[in-house]
Amino acid sequence: MNSASTERRDFAYPTNRVVGTVADGGNARAATGALLQAGFHMDDIDVLHGEKDLERLDEIGAEHGFLAQFQRTMIRTFELEEFKHLTHHLEDVRAGRFVIMVLAKRRVQRIVAADILNRYGAEFVGFYGRWAWEALPGTAQASPQDIPVLFVQAWNDRDPDALASLFDEDGEFVHFTGLCCHDRESIRKAHTNGLARVMTKSILASDATKVKLLAPDVAVVHARMMLSGDTPDSAGTPPPGPRTTIVSFVVHRAGDRWLCASAHTTDVIPDTATTRIDAALGH
Do 80 and 196 sit in the same domain of this protein? Predict the structure, then answer.
């Protein structure tokens, strides 16, 4: 574990990195494997553990090494939260635990990395930015029903990164207009544009949710949602009133969380036939 991830370079202050401590070696290996499966490169993952890494951290006289920058940071942030967490990670290495550092420059990467570390029991998970430390608690979905709840939350928070993190790397999203997104990044970009330019004041509210298990680790989730607060079109025409939509999610278990493989939105047309079908479905 140690030789596979710590012999490439000297460590610098962990700018733009998600960092967490894992006590168990098996969990540390599993977390590293999950990070690689999620699309992170081996060169972006460092695992600090054992005397060898401790010597490198404590190397006396290293002008540009981790410890020198670490000590300067402690002076600069003596009364800040960052000081406490940097100190804790150094003590974790001394105690023989595994400190995992993941380069994550984009927010969606931070969410994914933090979820993986939290999933495998990491403590003190946080993101070290250029100037400050930010806690990153887990947002893991414990059941299929959590997916639409977190989808609504991300929508109303105007957070396309959090929304995209609910999907697999090659996840699919089909909008009710027929727009198709074929991976997590395109889902993020589509919702970045939509939430920032078109649906700037929209509010999404969840209603009934039904889960159909296809297998112990696979399910279809149908979530009835109400969308209100559409933005007027370019001609200034007032938007229609609140509209109802059904979002169908195909989800699967990934470790102890659930991820979305595909989602499809369908607007409910309020006519007589639809009302009868809707009633028959129990909505």
Answer: no
Domain boundaries, position 165: 146-280
Residue of 277 and 8 predicted with greater confidence: 277
CB count in 10 Å sphere of residue 164: 28
**The model's pTM:** 0.56
Domain end marker among 109, 135, 161: 135
Q: What is the pLDDT of residue 90?
A: 77
pLDDT over threshold 50, residue 8: no
DSSP 167-228: EEEEEEEE-TTS-EE-SHHHHHHHHHHIIIIISTT-EEEEEEEEEEEEETTEEEEEEEEEEE
CA 236/CA 141 separation, integer angstroms: 40
Identify which of 44, 254, 99 has the alpha carbon closest to the alpha carbon of residue 165. 254
**Minimal CA–CA distance to 133: which of 65, 87, 66?**
87
Q: What is the mean pLDDT of residues 100-129?
A: 85
Q: In what order do the strands lie in the sheet with 98-103?
A: 45-48, 98-103, 17-22, 123-128, 133-135
